[in-house]
């Protein structure tokens, strides 16, 4: 008897992006992240990981807000919208986070409640702890196939290096 179960495609490679939404360097990484997502689509899983830095007083709330946006189906759109306006987040804090949710058509009242009740704190804490455990010290930091790449020092050449790794991983899946 032959096995007629469908062949499952291999899981896509995962690029973890350790980021914080009050970080100007993370805003600088947006073009590279957009290019990677456009080039690979669903062949690469790009995961936003939280690494709020103490020097940015609204970064922890922003990380929680992203988790609420993920729950409402617009995680990347929300993260990009906030990163595009880092200075406004610096000035206005949580009110700005709720306003961005409203601008994107998300349930802004639910954002406000999530920031008050802290329902996403454990996810943010877990990401930060994992980041520290693997040596993340600043943002953005990328991790793919066990390799850590520090984008906080310079984005120069990082996208090309990530593409080389992804292309190698994808080619390995075809064998």
Can you characterise this structure?
The chain is an alpha+beta fold and 175 residues long. The chain has helices spanning 24-40, 59-71, 75-83, 86-92, 94-103, 108-117, 121-133, 158-174, and strands spanning 14-19, 45-50, 141-144, 147-150. The chain has a four-stranded mixed sheet, sandwiched between helices. Strand 1, helix 1 and strand 2 form a beta-alpha-beta unit. The radius of gyration is 17 Å and the shape is globular. The model has no long low-confidence stretch (mean pLDDT 91).
Share of residues in helices:
40-55%
Continuous helix count: 8
Distance between the termini: 26 Å
Would you identify the regions where 5 or more consecutive residues have pLDDT less than 50? none
Average pLDDT, rounded to a whole number, is 91
Based on Cα principal axes, name the global outline.
globular
Strand order of the largest sheet: 2-1-3-4
Order of helices and strands: EHEHHHHHHEEH
Question: Quick one: how many beta strands?
Answer: 4
User: How big is the Rg?
Assistant: 17 Å
Strand percent estimate: 5-15%
Biggest sheet statistics = 4 strands, mixed
The SS-based structural class is: alpha+beta
Structure described in brief:
Helix content is 55%, strand content 11%. The protein has 175 residues and is an alpha+beta fold.
